[in-house]
Specification:
The protein is built from eleven helices and no strands. By secondary structure, it is an all-alpha fold. The protein binds 2'-deoxyguanosine-5'-diphosphate and fe (iii) ion (2 copies). The site of 2'-deoxyguanosine-5'-diphosphate (DGI) has 15 residues, from loops. Residues 22, 52, 82, 84-85, 113-115, 131, 169, 173-176, 179 line the site of 2'-deoxyguanosine-5'-diphosphate.
């Protein structure tokens, strides 16, 4: 068994079945986007596999908070109110600490997969997008159209996902300031590109 297969076996044990299925979907979708846009395919696959590793059966919100305290990971007030957001930061920490990932590009793709941020790298965009469009995702509106766009033009796909996410969030929950920042940044870059 190679290292990637071993990791998959470990994650299968660590995650709920549905979360593991989603994880594989993200890994393969990220690999496809990497092929399309010229990113390192192995890096994309590995980041996809680990992006939700903090959503382990053995880690609840309390445990995420205590991991942040113990390892000096800063927690914003918004994250204190919405601790589910912490799985991105904690996941990046665990990818390094528990799973031995050293590549900073992979770690930051995990770190930013939930909110995105202004000025994302290609790999960060790929993981952010793959998380949204992977085949097991079903509930979001007009997903098939969004999937097509993501394989035609990555930034158009990113903007479309940010738009739909903000719309969804603003109806149901409060929007994280970083998510808002990401949205504002990428909407403002439409004009610059053209
Ligand atoms: O971990 P996944 O479910 O695969 O997807 P994800 O990492 O995008 O996380 C989605 C969760 O994070 C979902 O419970 C909504 C929450 N979330 C993401 N952005 C925001 C947010 N919650 C709030 N309140 N505000 C946000 O901006
Ligand atoms: Fe996630
Ligand atoms: Fe995910």
């Amino acid at each position: 068994m190679n290292a990637m297969e071993k990791l998959q076996k470990e994650l299968k044990k660590e995650l709920e079945d549905s979360r593991y299925i989603h994880t594989l979907g993200v890994a393969y979708t990220a690999a496809c986007l990497a092929m399309r846009y010229g990113e390192n395919m192995e890096h994309a696959f590995l980041a996809g596999l680990l992006h939700d590793c903090a959503k382990s059966k053995n880690i609840d919100h309390k445990k995420m908070m205590s991991l942040c305290e113990k390892h000096a990971i800063p927690v914003t007030d918004f994250e204190k109110e919405n601790p589910v957001l912490l799985h991105a930061k904690v996941g990046s920490f665990l990818a390094k600490d528990e799973y031995g990932v050293t590549d900073e590009g992979i770690l930051s793709a995990i770190r930013w997969h939930t909110t995105g941020h202004a000025g994302m790298t290609l790999l960060e965009k790929i993981i952010y997008i793959a998380d949204y469009i992977e085949p097991n995702r079903k509930k979001q509106p007009h997903l098939d159209e969004v999937r097509g766009i993501c394989f035609q033009n990555l930034d158009d796909g990113l903007r479309r996902i940010l738009h739909d996410t903000l719309f969804y969030l603003s109806e149901k929950k409060s929007v994280d300031p970083t998510t808002q920042d990401t949205y504002d940044y990428y909407m403002a870059t439409i004009l610059e590109e053209e």
